[in-house]
Amino acid sequence: MSGTALITGITGQDGAYLAKLLLDKGYQVHGMMRRSSTETLERIADIRDEITIHQGDLLDQLSLVRLLEQIEPTEVYNLAAQSFVPTSWSQPILTAETTGLGVTRVLEAIRQVNPNIKMYQASSSEMFGKVQETPQTEATPFYPRSPYGVAKVYGYWITINYRESYNLFASNGILFNHESPLRGLEFVTRKITDGVARIKLGLQKELLLGNLDAKRDWGFAGDFVNAMWLMLQANEPGDFVVATGEQHSVREFCEIAFSTVGLNLDDHVGIDPRFYRPAEVETLLGNPAKAKTELGWEPQVTFEQLVTMMVEQDLKRVEREIKLGN
Description:
- Helices cover 42% and strands 15% of the residues.
- By secondary structure, it is of the alpha/beta class.
- The chain folds into 2 domains: 4-178 and 219-242, NAD(P)-binding Rossmann-like Domain (Rossmann fold, 3-Layer(aba) Sandwich); 185-216 and 247-280 and 302-324, Alpha-Beta Complex (UDP-galactose 4-epimerase, domain 1).
- The strands form 4 sheets. It has a 7-stranded parallel sheet, with helices on both faces. Strands 7-10 form a two-stranded parallel sheet. It has a two-stranded parallel ribbon with strand order 8-13.
- The longest helix has 22 residues, at 92-113.
């Protein structure tokens, strides 16, 4: 199976893993990124010569239409968004425009240019927010607790509306937390593994965090992008929870991360109230039964393997920085 794919948000963690997966499957891969004075292509540097990058923006409908006309993709993966929850509190309007209304612009462009294009929409477990039941399934009511979560709920429902109104092949992946060595340093998991590496190598002594008791369902991003692809290979479009079905606290993540380098978290972790959310999401736990049954998807990397992988990669990176004098 191969085709032509357009990935919005290709420079992000998921975009990079998805691009590599699609290349391995024989796709022609195109990526969309916003114009910037400095290009941030580190995550896709190793495949840069194998993909085509285009300028475009979820805020600009015309750029999306022209891109679809030019590329003629068979599949569109809409991963672009303002995706950092804390930033959504300081930039709620921008978050609504990109993470919410941006989905409508992609769907409308597909409807106008070629309704046969299959679309994947990156939905989020943050839509569940103040959870109404545990574990969360495709039928669990949403109760978002951040502007980001609210915008994702809009994107989810507008995708369903276009699917049902215009018969588009448009699927939502309700992805729970998924991490990797490519995760941005602003996210708590990568903040932890980077901090552990720097503490181990003597560059810092303390790691300041927020709520250590928050619990999440963490998986490996490389596993999760495979679920995205499987959704667009299904006979019918649909909405799928993608999760591991296991839950761990931030404290557990820290314990494994520090133990990987022979350290104790209690000697190095401090609590800073600045890192608490205005409205905290205390617990998220997904039930991926539908994805497993209907798509044949299974996560491959365990929680412990994920944390260890991230710490080891950050150790190597920080060691290189030290050698280069950075």
